[in-house]
Amino acid sequence: MPQPMTLHWSPRSPYVRKVMIVAHETGLQGRLHPVRTVVGGTTPHRDLMRINPLGKIPTLELLDGSVLYDSPVICEYLDTLHDGPKLFPRTWPDRGVALRRLALGDGMLDAALPWLGERFRPAERRSQPHMDLWREKLVACVAALEHEADALANSRLTIGHIAIGVALGYLDFRFDELRWREGHPRLAAWQATFNQLPSVLANPPVDDR
Ligand SMILES: N[C@@H](CCC(=O)N[C@@H](CS)C(=O)NCC(=O)O)C(=O)O
To answer: pLDDT tens-digit profile of 73-91?
Structure first.
């Protein structure tokens, strides 16, 4: 077994969670050495920035000294390291569907995280129009996914399924008040099944500090 690769990690990050689920699905958990890395807020993480100038997690250090980011790149790299069914389909149109779903799931997170950040600002400095916009986008994504729920349920697991499952899981983790299941029974049923995957159960979101 080769030495493990260092993964800059947090149990709170949904992007990291996606990588961990991919590692589990591809049998590569033992190849990763997760290192708790605290980012966010206004304090730059200068050690991390030396290897990833964006200062974001997940960041993966390979054994040859090279570094990979962001989460889609790391996931696709992990998918090259095993011989099982591929999470990134090789041929179109299946590849396009999976990548679009990956973009949708990640895009939901890209709306949810700034919204969460805005909530931590003093009330008088919060931008209500921005928060309304992020909410509207997330509501639109959930509505669009309701129409795709049967297709998700009836197709084999890809990176697109994982990204969407992780994004919905993040709404459960941080945005209870959205009550996204209401009016979206097919999507709720699909996510309930997704949540029972061993790879998903093994990597719950945790507010550890
Ligand atoms: N597109 C990136 C997003 C990663 C990201 O934003 N991670 C957050 C943690 S959940 C982070 O590192 N935030 C710190 C910062 O933006 O300074 C990916 O898919 O990896």
So the answer is: 999 999 999 999 999 999 9
34 in contact with ligand 1, CB cutoff 6 A? no
Give residue-wise pLDDT tens across range 143-179.
999 999 999 999 999 999 999 999 999 999 999 999 9
Would the pTM of this model clear 0.85, i.e. be above it?
A: yes
- CA trace torsion 5, 45, 138, 193 (10° rounding): 30
CB-based contacts of 62, cutoff 8 Å, min separation 6: 5, 68
CA distances from 26 to 53, 78, 206 (A): 28, 8, 23
Ligand 1, atom nearest to 58 Cα: 20
Whether 157 contacts 24, CB under 8 Å:
no
For ligand 1, say whether the CB of 13 is within 6 Å of any of its atoms: yes
Query: DSSP character for 3?
Result: P
